[in-house]
């Protein structure tokens, strides 16, 4: 991480948020509890992801984690929902309300028109595992990453991207094994299953993720956005169609034809569209 001139974009309690050369880095920062998320964490994640989406200088986002734990030196990406904050109907924040807002974070990652790369330095467990699944790509620490699904140990079930989309990624049998048995899988095993893009020596992990982001940034922003939404579309139903079509509408807005349609309305006249029907 030393060679990258990260600048803090905003101070938070449960996460860190930095930017450098078109890349944003959002990282869990509760390493002593394996980076479990509580409502405060998810609110901060939503805020930072929203900023990354809105910032036109940012083209790719790393979702990573600080660490290791000051207690035992163990690295983690995220161990899912903080079970100490869990109430009867969800996770209880400082306002006393019970929330399930990690799914909003998942949706922001899924629908943001920028590549999101998950950086897994250690444990990726429960809702933390699901977050890695929903990211566009995942890089994992060769020495320390461990993937594990504990939802069925604590009466939770991510019935969306965390399980059904995972099954599309690793196959139905393997996805059922991951959820029904809750075993530990190494970075290499996760790579072999198809849910990790690269296994990287721990010391090089953050730099590798930044380099992957820089490679993405060298590509056409419109292509990256449309490709992401096209690949999402078949799994996201009408919402996937809506997101893809929204961007298609934006492209249509940029044409002379659209300008004529708008101007004709404002000038209270019939539109004079260019009568060319391209083959
Ligand atoms: C991650 C472990 C496998 C790591 O094991 P180990 O290395 O032996 O460490 P530990 O000694 O167990 O832990 C160290 C320290 O951290 C605390 N801790 C770890 N994980 C959590 C956690 N999730 N919550 C609270 N605290 C945690 C642990 O207590 C220790 O503290 P000490 O004070 O030092 O004793 C292992 O830790 C582990 O299995 N952790 C629990 C994993 C888990 O079950 N997570 C929850 C899964 S359910 C979930 O994530 C909800 C998903 C979700 O949010 C969701 C999904 C679908 C729809 C809606 C929602 C929604 O929004 O709720």
Automatic annotation (TrEMBL):
Pathway: Quinol/quinone metabolism; 1,4-dihydroxy-2-naphthoate biosynthesis; 1,4-dihydroxy-2-naphthoate from chorismate: step 6/7; Quinol/quinone metabolism; menaquinone biosynthesis. Substrate binds at residues 34, 79-83, 91, 123-127, 150, 156, 253, 268. Keywords: Lyase, Menaquinone biosynthesis. It comes from the Bacteria. InterPro entries: ClpP/crotonase-like_dom_sf, DHNA-CoA_synthase_MenB, Enoyl-CoA_hydra/iso, Enoyl-CoA_hydra_C. Its EC number is 4.1.3.36. It catalyses: 2-succinylbenzoyl-CoA + H(+) = 1,4-dihydroxy-2-naphthoyl-CoA + H2O. The record marks 91, 151, 253 as: Important for catalysis. The keyword Transmembrane helix does not apply. It is an enzyme of class 4 (lyase). One of its GO terms (molecular function) is 1,4-dihydroxy-2-naphthoyl-CoA synthase activity. The keyword Lyase applies. NCBIfam families: menB, PRK07396.1, PRK08321.1. Converts o-succinylbenzoyl-CoA (OSB-CoA) to 1,4-dihydroxy-2-naphthoyl-CoA (DHNA-CoA). Belongs to the enoyl-CoA hydratase/isomerase family. MenB subfamily. This is 1,4-dihydroxy-2-naphthoyl-CoA synthase. It comes from Mesonia ostreae. The gene is menB.
């Amino acid at each position: 991480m030393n060679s990258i001139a990260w600048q803090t974009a905003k101070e938070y309690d449960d996460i860190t948020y930095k930017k450098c050369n078109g890349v944003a880095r959002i990282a869990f920062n509760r390493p002593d509890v394996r980076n479990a998320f509580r409502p405060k964490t998810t609110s901060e994640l939503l805020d930072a992801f929203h900023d990354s989406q809105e910032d036109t200088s940012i083209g790719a986002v790393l979702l990573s984690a600080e660490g290791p734990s000051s207690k035992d030196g163990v690295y983690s990406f995220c161990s899912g929902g903080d079970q100490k904050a869990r109430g009867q109907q969800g996770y209880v924040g400082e306002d006393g309300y019970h929330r399930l807002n990690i799914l909003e974070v998942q949706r922001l990652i899924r629908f943001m028109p920028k590549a999101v790369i998950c950086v897994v330095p250690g444990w990726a467990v429960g809702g933390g595992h699901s977050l890695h699944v929903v990211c566009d790509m995942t890089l994992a620490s060769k020495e320390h990453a461990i993937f594990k699904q504990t939802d069925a140990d604590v009466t939770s079930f991510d019935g969306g991207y965390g399980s059904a989309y995972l099954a599309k990624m690793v196959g139905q049998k393997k996805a059922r094994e991951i959820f029904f048995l809750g075993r530990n899988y190494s970075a290499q095993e996760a790579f072999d299953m198809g849910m990790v893009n690269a296994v990287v020596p721990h010391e090089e992990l953050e730099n590798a993720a930044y380099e992957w982001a820089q490679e993405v940034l060298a590509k056409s922003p419109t292509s990256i956005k449309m490709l992401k939404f096209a690949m999402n579309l078949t799994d996201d139903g009408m919402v996937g169609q809506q997101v893809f079509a929204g961007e298609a509408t934006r492209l249509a807005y940029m044409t002379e034809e659209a300008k004529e349609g708008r101007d004709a309305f404002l000038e209270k006249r019939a539109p004079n569209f260019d009568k060319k029907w391209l083959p």
